[in-house]
Amino acid sequence: MLNRSSFVLLAAASTAFALTEFNWTSIEPSTSLNWTACYADGLDCARLLVPLDYASPNNSTTAALAITRFRSTSPSSSYRGPILLNPGGPGGSGVEFAVVYGSEIAGIVGAEYDIVGFDPRGVSFSTPTISWFLNDAERALWYPPNQNTVLPSLNETALGLPYAYARAQVQSQLAAARDADFLQYMTTDYTAQDMLTITEAFGFEKLKYWGVSYGTVLGQTFAALFPDKVERVVIDGVLPIDDWYSANLTETMLDTNQVLDAFFTSCFEAGPSVCAFHNNASSPSDIATALVDLLLSLQQKPVPAVASLTAGNAGYGVVDYSLVKNVIFQSLYQPYKEFPALAQALADLAAGNASTIYAASGPQEFTCEPGAAPVNKMFEAGASITCTDVRLNDTLADLQSYYAGMAAISEFADVWVPVRIACAGWKVHRPGQYTGPTGPTNTSAPLLVIGNLRDPVTSWPGANQTAEVLFPGAGFLTYNASGHTSFIAPSTCLDAYVGAYFRNGTLPPAGAVCQPDVQLFATNASARADGGGVSRRGVPGLTMGGMGTRKGLFSF
Ligand SMILES: *[C@@H]1O[C@H](CO)[C@@H](O)[C@H](O)[C@H]1NC(C)=O
Ligand SMILES: *[C@@H]1O[C@H](CO)[C@@H](O)[C@H](O)[C@H]1NC(C)=O
Ligand SMILES: *[C@@H]1O[C@H](CO)[C@@H](O)[C@H](O)[C@H]1NC(C)=O
Ligand SMILES: *[C@@H]1O[C@H](CO)[C@@H](O)[C@H](O)[C@H]1NC(C)=O
Ligand SMILES: *[C@@H]1O[C@H](CO)[C@@H](O)[C@H](O)[C@H]1NC(C)=O
Ligand SMILES: *[C@@H]1O[C@H](CO)[C@@H](O)[C@H](O)[C@H]1NC(C)=O
Ligand SMILES: *[C@@H]1O[C@H](CO)[C@@H](O)[C@H](O)[C@H]1NC(C)=O
Ligand SMILES: *[C@@H]1O[C@H](CO)[C@@H](O)[C@H](O)[C@H]1NC(C)=O
Ligand SMILES: *[C@@H]1O[C@H](CO)[C@@H](O)[C@H](O)[C@H]1NC(C)=O
Ligand SMILES: *[C@@H]1O[C@H](CO)[C@@H](O)[C@H](O)[C@H]1NC(C)=O
Ligand SMILES: *[C@@H]1O[C@H](CO)[C@@H](O)[C@H](O)[C@H]1NC(C)=O
Ligand SMILES: *[C@@H]1O[C@H](CO)[C@@H](O)[C@H](O)[C@H]1NC(C)=O
Fold this sequence. Notes:
Order of helices and strands: EEEEHEHHHEHEHHHEEHHHHHHHEHEHE
Helix content: 25-40%
GO molecular function: hydrolase activity
Strand content: 5-15%
Largest sheet: 10 strands, mixed
Distance between the termini: 29 Å
Bound molecules: 2-acetamido-2-deoxy-beta-D-glucopyranose
Protein name: AB hydrolase-1 domain-containing protein
CATH architecture of the largest domain: 3-Layer(aba) Sandwich
Pfam families: Abhydrolase_1, Abhydrolase_4
Mean pLDDT: 90
CATH topology of the largest domain: Rossmann fold
Number of helices: 17
Strand order of the largest sheet: 1-2-3-5-4-6-7-10-11-12
CATH superfamily of the largest domain: Alpha/Beta hydrolase fold, catalytic domain
CATH class of the largest domain: Alpha Beta
Radius of gyration: 22 Å
C-alpha cells in the first residue's frame, strides 16, 4: 500500500514549472507553523496540529493539517498576513491550489500577503485522511479506470438509478466502518474553525480568504459562525449555504444548459476550420442536432476504444453514452480551454474513432507496482464531507422524484444527481454540528461575491441570492463568462476588482460586470485560455475539486 502522506502532487506532470517531490511525513506536526521549503522556489510547507473535536479542545486527539504558503516577498514592515484558499470539491487539495496558483494570486493581490493553501481535515495530505478502501487495489476494483462508476449517467440503463442507490449504500457502510474514529469530525463547520486556527497561528485575528465552488460554502459557513472575524472573504462560483445544508441542489443546475448552448453557438460562429464538430452547419441548432444524434446512437451501440497501448488498463475501454455525457459535462467547467478539444473528440467519434474521447475521459492507470502513481481519493473525501454535513435520508422513491425534478431543469441531471445519491444510507453525523443559517448574517466586513453568468454547477441566481439575502451589504460582481468560477479565464477587469477588495476593502459598484480577456474557440493564441497564449488560469490537467478537471472527479 502506498504511504498516503508521501504522495507526489498529482498536478506535477502537467504544470509549467518544475516541482520537486515532497515527503509530508518528513515534517513533524506542531501546534505552531514551522516552515520547511517544499515543491518549488517561493513555497514552504508545514503541518499544524488542531483539535480533532473542537467541542473537546483539551482532548489530546488531533488532526494535522497540511499547509503550503507562497511566501510574501515584502519587507516585514509592509507584510499583511495570510490569504487562505480553498479550491472546492469538497475534497480538493488546497496545497495543490497554492502550489499551482500561488504566484498568480500574489500577482493579483500583491506581494504583501502569504498565499496559503491548506488541505481541509480528512483531505489529501492532511491526516487522518478519509479513505473508504483498505488499499488502492480495492479502490480500483470498485472504481474502474474510466471513472463512470463514480457519476454514472442515470439514463444509460433503466436500472441506472436503483443500481447507483445500492452502490452508494455499500460505500456509506464502508466509510462508517473504516473511518469510524474520525469521520464525524470531518465537517465544513470544523474546517471553518480550522481556518480561524490557521489565521491565528499566523498571528492574525481575522480571516482573509478566497474560496471557489464548494469553497464558497466553507467561506459562508465561516462568516455565519464567526461574523466578527471577517476581514476579507471572496466567494467565487457560489453555492448558497441554505441550499447546501438543506441538500436542495436545485439551484446548482439552473444555468447548465446555457453553457452547452454556448458550445453550439461559439462552434457555429468559429466555423468549420476552427470547430471540428461544425460539419458545415447552417445554424447552432444543426450542431445541437448532430450531438443528440450521436448520443442516441451510443445508447443503441457503445463503441470500442483503444486510445493507448502503453497506458496499461487506462489505455483502452468502451465508449458509451455515460462516458460521453461525462466528458461533455466536464468540458462545461472550463469551456475556454476544453471546447476545441471536445469538438475534435466528438468529430472523431462521429467519424468512428472513439479513442480521442476515451483519452479525454481521463482514465487513470492503475498498477500495484511500488511507487506507482497514487489514486485520487477526492471523491471519497468529498462525498464523506458532503454527506456528513447534510441530513439526508432518501428512499429510492425520493431519489426518483428528485431526479425527475432535476431532469426538468437540466440536460445533465443524469450525471449530476449521483452527487446526491452518494449520500444514500449515510449515517454519520455529529451531535451539535452546524446545520445552516437561520437568517441573514451581518459580518465585520463585507464579503465579495462573484457569479458567472453561465456556470454549469453554481448558478448566477445562487450568487445573486447570497449577496442579496444571506449576506446583505456584500459586494457583487457578475462575470460575463461561460464555465465554473472566475478561474476559468483570465480577466484584467476581475483582477482589478479583487485586488482592490483585498488591498483596500473597496467593493465593485452596484451592477458591475466584467468580461473575460479570452474568447471561446479563439484562434489567436493571445485570446486562448489553454496556456498557449496566457500565462495564468486554466492550467491543464489539474486534479483539484471545483475546477472541473479531466482527472478530478468534478463536483463543486
Ligand atoms: C518520508 O519521510 C519519512 C519520515 O522521515 C520516512 O520514514 C519515509 O521513508 C520517507 N518516505 C519517502 C518516500 O522518502
Ligand atoms: C521545526 O522543524 C525542524 C525541522 O523539521 C525541527 O528540527 C525543529 O525541531 C522544529 N521546531 C519546532 C519548534 O517544532
Ligand atoms: C482546557 O484546558 C485549559 C488549560 O488547562 C483550561 O483553561 C480550559 O478550561 C480547558 N477547556 C475545556 C473545554 O475543558
Ligand atoms: C478523546 O477523543 C477520542 C476520539 O473522539 C475519544 O475516543 C476519547 O474518548 C476522548 N478522550 C477523552 C479523555 O475525552
Ligand atoms: C429548492 O430550491 C428551489 C430553487 O431555489 C426552490 O424552488 C424549491 O422550493 C426548493 N425545494 C425545497 C424542498 O426546499
Ligand atoms: C464543408 O463544405 C466544404 C465546401 O463546400 C467542403 O469542401 C467540405 O467537404 C464540407 N465538409 C463537410 C464535413 O461536409
Ligand atoms: C483516432 O484519432 C486520434 C486523434 O485524432 C488519432 O491519433 C488516431 O490515429 C485515430 N485512430 C484511428 C484508428 O484512426
Ligand atoms: C430514515 O428513513 C427510515 C425509513 O423511512 C426511517 O425508519 C428512519 O427513522 C429515518 N431516519 C432518520 C434519521 O430520519
Ligand atoms: C433521460 O432519458 C429520457 C428518455 O429516456 C429523456 O426524456 C430525458 O431527457 C433524459 N434525461 C437526461 C437528463 O438526459
Ligand atoms: C444587521 O444589520 C442591520 C443594519 O444594521 C440590522 O438592521 C439587523 O438587525 C442586523 N441583523 C442581525 C442579525 O444582526
Ligand atoms: C440580484 O438580481 C436582481 C434582479 O436582477 C437585481 O435587482 C439585484 O440588484 C441583484 N443583486 C445584486 C447584489 O446584484
Ligand atoms: C488602494 O488605495 C490606495 C490609496 O487610496 C491607492 O493608491 C491604491 O491604488 C489602491 N489599490 C488598489 C489595488 O485599488
